[in-house]
Every structure is written in C-alpha cells, then in structure tokens.
Amino acid sequence: MKLVAWSFALGVVAFATPSIAVADEAMTRVFTCKGDDAAMEVYIPQSAVQGAGLANVKIDRPITGAYTLDLTDAGKGKTLEPVHVSLSPDRKFVIVDQFTRKLPPTRVPVSGGTVNFDNRFGTNAKCGAFNQE
Predict the structure, then answer these.
(1) What is the DSSP string of 77-132?
(2) pTM
(3) Residue 75: strand pairing partners
(4) What is the spatial distance between Cα 65 and Cα 83, in angstroms, rounded to a whole number?
(5) What is the pLDDT of residues 76-95, one digit of tens each?
C-alpha cells in the first residue's frame, strides 16, 4: 500500500482556501486513474484505512481527502486539491466530490472503471479498483 504524507501540501491548500479544514495527517492513495490528457489520484486519511479493499475503509460518511491532477505531460505540473470522499448507499461506487471547483461529484466504481472527473483534462479516466495497492 502506497503511503504518502501530504500534510504540508494539504496545509498549503487549506491555507489557500481558508474555509476548508484539512486534517494534518498522512494520506493513503485509494485510486489511480489515467485519462487521455492526465493522470489522477485520490487519497484519504490514513486513519480511515485499516487494510486493503473496501471492507477495510471507513467512508460511509463523507471525509476530506485529496485529489491530484497530473498535467506534467501537458507542461502544467501537478495540482492537489481537497475533495470529499464517500461511499454510495449500495456500496458499489466511491463518490469523489471536487467541491472547491464546484464540479458535479464523480461516481467511481469500487471495482474500477472509466469515469470523467471534469470536461477539460479528467476525461475518459480509467481507474483501478478501490484501495487495492
């Protein structure tokens, strides 16, 4: 399982958007996605992850995580933004809400699949299964 400490980066994001409270804790990557123009990753607090797979994650209620949009290939770098992450009532989708950009929530199949995070760079993103690293 890949563990990334994003506390400094999340602190910078929280500072840039003062109305958002982001915990100062380590994050665990739970989704990796590759689209036509960019790569995307979704992270949630390590404290919500007890092991691999859906059964070992506590996201029945929305939690604040992080979303990366890697536009390095387009010469634009990699951005990090806070997102709300939750589980659909039927437990078949993870909902990623990019609330800071006011985009509609993205429903990513727990088993993986192709989704659109936005209509600019996050299109046709092929995501692996949730929390399988």
Answers:
(1) EEEEEEEEEEE-TTSSEEEEE-GGGTPPPEEEETT-EEE-S-SSSSTTEEE--TT-
(2) 0.80
(3) none
(4) 5
(5) 888 889 999 999 999 999 99
